[in-house]
Amino acid sequence: MQRRNLMKAALAAALAAALAAPALAAPIDDAMALKGPDREKKLLEGAKKEGSLLIYTSAQSDDMGALVDAFKKKYGLNVEVWRSSSEKVLQRAVQESRANKHAMDVAETNGPELESLSREKIAAKLQGPYLADLIPAAIRPHGEWVGTRLNVFVQAYNTQQVKKADLPKTWEDLANPKWKGKLGIEQEDADWLQGEVAELGEARATKVFKDIVAANGISVRKGHTLLTQLVVSGEIPLALTVYNYKAEQLKNKGAPIDWFTIGPAIARPNGISVNKNAPHPYAATLFFDFEISPEGQKILAGRDFVPTSKKVDTPLNKVPMKFVDAAASLDQGQKFDKLYQELFTRAAH
Hints:
It is a single chain. This protein folds into two domains: 25-150 and 270-315, Periplasmic binding protein-like II (D-Maltodextrin-Binding Protein, domain 2); 151-267 and 330-345, Periplasmic binding protein-like II (D-Maltodextrin-Binding Protein, domain 2), CATH 3.40.190.10. Helices cover 46% and strands 17% of the residues. The protein contains 14 helices and eleven strands. Strands 1, 2, 3, 4, 5, 6, 7, 8, 9, 10 and 11 form an eleven-stranded mixed sheet that branches.
C-alpha cells in the first residue's frame, strides 16, 4: 500500500511538473519565428539538413513548375510536387493528418480548401517578413494561410466570332436572342455566383441568370482551362466564368481570345499554407517566404497570374474587383451550390 501511495505521489508530481512546464515549440513554429536579416540564411541551413520539400498543389504543372524551378535554382534544394484537383489535395491532406501520417510540407491550392485545412487544425500559423506587402484580401484573420494570387472571374470571348462593339454591358444584355447557342460557363463556380449575388442582390441575380439560360441556353463544362480553350476554338463564343490569367496567357500566345468584365470582377484569393507537422519545416518556411516575396510574386505575374503583393504591378489587377471570402464560401457553400445547379447545371440539360 505504501509503495502504491509513493508511486501515485510520484506520478502526481510528474504530471504537475509537466503541466507547469512551458510547451515546447513545434519545429515549424521555430522556423516561422526566425527574424532579422539572417532569417533566410538560417532557414536555408535547416532546409539543407532536411534535404527536400513536398508540395501538394492544384495549380497547373507549368505554372507551379516555374515557381518551383526558380526556388530549386536559387537554393539548390530538392522539391517534389504532387498535383491533383483542389478537392483531392484537401482530401489527401486530411486523410494523412487523421492517420498521423505527415508527408505534406506545403499546400498550394484554392482558398476554400486552404480554409478547410485551417479548420481541420492542419495548418501552421504563418510568420515572415513579406506578409506586410500583401493586400488586405490576402490575409486571413487566423493567419494560417495567405493568398498568393487571385483567381479573377471574367468574361471571355472569341475575337473572330464576337465583335468588341457587340459585347454586353449588363447581364441583362445576355438574354438578347443574338446570344442563343453562344454561351458557356464552368460547372462548379458557385463562389462566383455568391459574389454576383452580393453585388446584384439575390432576387436580381436569380432572375437575370434564369432569363439568360431560358432564352439562349448555356453550355456547362468542367474545368476553367477547358472552358477557355473552347472559347479559343470558337465552340463557345462567349464564356461567363473564365480566369483572366488563363485568357491572358492564351491571348499573349496569339490565340483569338480576349476578356472583359460585366460589373466588378469577382475575385477569390488562392494561396499557400504550411503543414503544422511539416516533416521539412525549414524548407517549407523557406518556400513560403519565397512565394510571397517580390521575387516569387514576379514569377507568378510572369505567368499572367494576379499576384497579391503590393510590390508587384500587373495590368491584370486594374479592373474593379469584388472579393469572395473563403470562409463564407464554406459556410454558405451548400446554398450556392444548390442555386448554381438550379440556374445553370440542371437548366442546361
